[in-house]
Each structure stands twice: as C-alpha cells, then as structure tokens.
Amino acid sequence: ANGGVLGCSVRFPNLIDVSHICTSGLNGRGFCVGDVGAPLVATVGGRNFQIGIASFFPNSGCDSGAPSVYTRITSFMNFIRQHI
To answer: Where are the beta strands (DSSP E) in 1-84?
Structure first.
C-alpha cells in the first residue's frame, strides 16, 4: 500500500516489522480510535480477504495524512489455527 514500510518506519521508529502492513493516510484515509481492531480487506478476483487488523496510528490523529498500521494476519496463522 502507499506509504510503505519506509514511511511507516520513519513515522514509527523501532515499531514496524514484517508482521505489520502500513497504509497511506493520504486524504484523511487513516483509521481512528474507534476503528482499532477493524479489518483491512483486499479484493482479489472478486473475493474479499481479510489481510490485516487495525492496530495503531499516529498521535497526530487519524486525519493527519500519516500512515496507519495494521497487524498482518498471515504472520499469525499458526497461532490462529491452534486457538480456533
């Protein structure tokens, strides 16, 4: 997604790793306080797949234009399968 890991790493130093997905906050597209835990969905071949869970956003606010950070679901598939 736009913003990429580099933009996120600069905005959130020492917090971003491969278990995160960063999305651009351009045009006020970041998520807000009440959105933490919400899904990040990708549409592939007309099907929707949940790929992330809203995790954290900048202290400057959800409409600041800064990237938002989601937890990457595929990083936790073994845990999910063991506990469902």
So the answer is: 20-23, 39-44, 47-56, 68-72
8 A C-beta contact, residue 50 and residue 40:
yes
Q: Tell me how far apart the alpha carbons of residues 79 and 23 are, in angstroms, rounded to a whole number.
A: 24
Residue 80, pLDDT > 50, answer: yes
pLDDT band, residue 65 (cuts 50/70/90): confident
Whole-angstrom Cα distance, residue 43 to residue 50? Answer: 9
Q: What is the mean pLDDT of residues 1-5?
A: 46
Owner of token pair 């234009």: 65
Q: Minimal CA–CA distance to 30: which of 1, 6, 72, 10?
A: 1
Q: How far apart are the first and last CA of the chain?
A: 29
**Pairing state of beta strands 39-44 and 20-23?**
unpaired
Residue 6 is predicted with a pLDDT of 58
